[in-house]
């Protein structure tokens, strides 16, 4: 190997084009924002004048919007893009590639069906990687016999599936996704592998419908005896089973090649001990895996997030094993992508601008956030190691053949590592492993790693590395964003706030990047003010914005047109659709006026000691009629929810205010004269009405089960009627 070849980097970094142009554009918007602030401050109505309260409310909202806009610019001013050279990695290190431990976490076989879980497991078992260096761990916090049985069946199927994938270079390597993409094929191998998959699927689904494992199956697998101590999913001993031992020379596929190690774990649960949700499961896996395979690299994926790119593992290693910069990198984050997103992304699940723009910007300041799935870590950084310039971790493979221990002994010696009491009086959950006490344990863990001096990398290859299941109903979407925004806001008000904890440890740009997400929840206040007050004052005929003929009208119009024109063009540039952008704006409004509002309230109550953090699992399955409406891009509301009462109240308030305004205008001054003085208020109220059309349909026109509950309609109408009457006649 020549010196030139050795010195060639394993990845390259390119700065995004047009950054100077964008900075000039952003500067012009900031000038417009400053003019808006000056106008709002210099034209405050005197005490006792009509509109003073609304004016002050809009001043506060506009100050907040301007401040938050400045914070978000950090993730756009320094975007970079990465490209890996996997061929160079293979040429230099193919025989020395490190061991990789893959963690798959599941918690509820009802919400996360076993078939979905094992498709994810099979996809990562079939990575384009030496099988003896690959170990897959399934953490089952539901402690379900059904999930364990599904894994045992998957282990048998893997003996056929893995060689089939390698022979035909299959992509994706989730069997369900592969067969769905291929359709029908009469080739012999395809027919055989599909039949084997269907046989496995039938066995698993039959057991799921039955709700238990048959005695015949139970007698074949001694591992089921471990459920003897099982009282409930919250009260049982550690259940650990090494399903496939990759070190065993007899663990072979049908072609005679080795298989990856495969392990099932249901950590000990007791009612009197807090189990710390997913963070606790990950920490248990860290300890268990260190005793079994001890791979130097760890990948964690959610159970619905299957591998869509068999070479993603090599992409990650190009960063970690780069001779010049690899020793600085702690983790490589891949974006979250979804296979079931509709053409126009009904619920804005792709988070397109975050994954295609903002995370690339954060990468330019030292790395993106750790988002809890699709992330490759150095084991030692997850376990608390601090970065030092002189330290260079050897990522090469270490053969453990000299450490042969029988499977029963290895299982027994490892069980104590997943006990409820193991972490007592230790640094686990504090300085070691994932941190506890926050609904977004991933974000706070990634921040602490970066504050120890490490960098992270954002890798967004053309072929998406992982594909998951996006929410298919509005309640699921809002609940997911409530959990995210609540957890991020808790970080901001904790001792781990990026503004204070990160000061002097990470770059200012990265601090601002973290803060832009930590400030999601407080956005609810300014958004609610702008969604309600202008419409209420429109009903009274009181103007809160400059007239069309006023020069102060220009900065408002410029900021609005420039911001949304750029947003629209950017969304289309990165693969979105026109209707997809409109859906994105709608969900932006719904999140800010419901999810973020309840997240903000719950966080304040949490800080005052009146509530506790909880981890809510997003449902991964839907009823058939729900799925059909989702595919037709019909919004799913369904059961009553406090979030829907807020959404419906805001939507109806704007509709009633607009109708009342039109009535007054037509019988009074006339539309043209009123439009001259209140154009921006009319426009704002009109846009809010148009964006809420699906909500009005769900309230009054739809007859299917996805409509808005009648109780929501009655409550919201009562709130709106009371508000309008009071504001019109009493204020």
From TrEMBL:
UniProt keywords, alphabetically: Cell wall biogenesis/degradation, Glycosyltransferase, Golgi apparatus, Membrane, Transferase, Transmembrane, Transmembrane helix
Residues the record marks as active site: 141, 442
Binding-site residues, UDP-alpha-D-glucose: 112, 141
Residue numbers binding Mn(2+): 278, 302
Listed Pfam families: Cellulose_synt
GO molecular function, one term: cellulose synthase (UDP-forming) activity
Domain of life: Eukaryota
Its membrane topology: Multi-pass membrane protein
Spans through the membrane: 20-41, 53-71, 514-533, 553-575, 596-619, 639-662, 674-696, 708-730
Record-linked InterPro entries: Cellulose_synth (IPR005150), Nucleotide-diphossugar_trans (IPR029044)
Any one of the GO CC terms: Golgi membrane
Cellular compartments annotated: Golgi apparatus membrane
This protein's record includes keyword Transmembrane helix: yes
Keyword RNA-binding: no
BP GO terms, sorted: cell wall organization; cellulose biosynthetic process
The family this protein is said to belong to: Belongs to the glycosyltransferase 2 family. Plant cellulose synthase-like E subfamily.
Function (record text): Thought to be a Golgi-localized beta-glycan synthase that polymerize the backbones of noncellulosic polysaccharides (hemicelluloses) of plant cell wall.
Protein name: Cellulose synthase-like protein E1
UniProt organism field: Rubus argutus
Phylogenetic lineage: Eukaryota, Viridiplantae, Streptophyta, Embryophyta, Tracheophyta
């Amino acid at each position: 190997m020549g010196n030139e070849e050795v010195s060639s980097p394993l990845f390259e970094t390119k700065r995004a084009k047009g950054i100077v142009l964008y900075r000039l554009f952003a500067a012009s918007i900031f000038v417009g924002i400053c003019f808006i602030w000056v106008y709002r401050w210099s034209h405050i109505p005197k005490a006792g004048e009509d509109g003073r309260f609304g004016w002050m409310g809009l001043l506060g909202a506009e100050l907040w919007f301007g401040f938050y806009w400045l914070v978000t610019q950090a993730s756009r001013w320094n975007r970079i893009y990465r490209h890996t050279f996997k061929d160079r990695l293979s040429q230099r290190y193919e025989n020395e590639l490190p061991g990789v431990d893959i963690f798959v976490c599941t918690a509820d076989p009802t919400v996360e069906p076993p078939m979905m879980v094992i498709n994810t497991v099979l996809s990562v078992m079939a990575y384009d990687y030496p099988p003896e260096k690959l170990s897959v761990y399934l953490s089952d916090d539901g402690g379900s016999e059904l999930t364990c049985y599904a894994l045992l069946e998957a282990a048998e199927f893997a003996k056929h599936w893995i060689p089939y994938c390698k022979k035909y270079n299959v992509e994706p390597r989730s069997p369900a996704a592969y067969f769905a993409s291929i359709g029908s094929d009469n080739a012999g191998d395809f027919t055989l592998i599909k039949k084997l998959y269907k046989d496995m699927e039938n066995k698993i689904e039959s057991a799921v419908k039955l709700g238990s494992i048959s005695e015949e199956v139970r007698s074949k697998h001694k591992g089921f005896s471990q459920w003897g101590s099982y009282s409930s999913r919250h009260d049982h001993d550690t259940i650990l089973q090494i399903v496939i031992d990759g070190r065993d020379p007899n663990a072979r596929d049908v072609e005679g090649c080795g298989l990856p190690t495969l392990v099932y774990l249901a950590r000990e649960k007791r009612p009197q001990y807090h189990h710390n949700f997913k963070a606790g499961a990950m920490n248990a896996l860290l300890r268990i895996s260190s005793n079994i395979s001890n791979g130097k690299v760890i990948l964690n994926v959610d159970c619905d997030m299957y591998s869509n790119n068999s070479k993603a593992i090599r992409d990650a290693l190009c960063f970690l094993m780069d001779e010049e910069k690899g020793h600085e990198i702690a983790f490589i984050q891949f974006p979250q992508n979804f296979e079931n997103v509709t053409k126009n992304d009904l619920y804005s699940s792709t988070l397109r601008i975050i994954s295609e723009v903002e995370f690339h910007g954060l990468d330019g300041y030292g790395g993106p956030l750790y988002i809890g799935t699709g992330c490759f870590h150095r084991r030692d950084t997850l376990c608390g190691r601090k970065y030092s310039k002189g330290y260079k971790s050897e990522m090469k493979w270490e053969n453990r053949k000299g450490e042969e221990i029988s499977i029963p002994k290895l299982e027994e010696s490892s069980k104590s590592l997943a006990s409820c009491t193991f972490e007592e009086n230790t640094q686990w959950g504090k300085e070691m492993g994932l941190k506890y006490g926050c609904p977004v344990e991933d974000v706070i863990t990634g921040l602490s790693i970066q504050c120890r001096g490490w960098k992270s990398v954002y890798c967004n290859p053309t072929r998406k590395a992982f594909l998951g299941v996006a929410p298919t109903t509005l309640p699921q979407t809002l609940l997911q964003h409530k959990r995210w925004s609540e957890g991020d806001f808790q970080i901001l008000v904790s001792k781990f706030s990026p503004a204070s904890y990160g000061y002097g440890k990470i770059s200012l740009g990265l601090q601002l990047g973290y803060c832009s997400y930590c400030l999601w929840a407080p956005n609810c206040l300014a958004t609610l003010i702008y969604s309600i007050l202008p419409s209420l004052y429109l009903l009274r005929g009181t103007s809160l914005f400059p007239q069309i003929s006023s020069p102060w009208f220009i900065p408002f119009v410029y900021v609005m047109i420039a911001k949304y024109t750029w947003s629209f063009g950017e969304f289309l540039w990165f693969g979105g659709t026109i209707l997809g952008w409109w859906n994105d704006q709608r969900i932006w409004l719904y999140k800010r006026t419901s999810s973020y509002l309840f997240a903000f309230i719950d966080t304040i109550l949490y800080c005052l000691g009146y509530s506790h953090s909880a981890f809510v699992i997003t449902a991964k399955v839907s009823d058939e009629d729900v799925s059909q409406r989702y595919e037709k891009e019909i919004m799913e509301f369904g059961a009553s929810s406090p979030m829907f009462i807020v959404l419906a109240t805001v939507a109806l308030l704007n509709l009633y205010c607009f109708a009342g305004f039109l009535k007054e205008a037509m019988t009074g001054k006339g539309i043209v004269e009123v439009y001259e003085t209140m154009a921006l208020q009319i426009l704002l109220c009109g846009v809010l009405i148009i964006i809420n059309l699906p909500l009005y349909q769900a309230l009054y026109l739809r007859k299917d089960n996805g409509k808005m509950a009648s109780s929501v309609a009655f409550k919201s109408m009562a709130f709106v009627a009371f508000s309008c009457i009071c504001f019109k006649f009493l204020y």
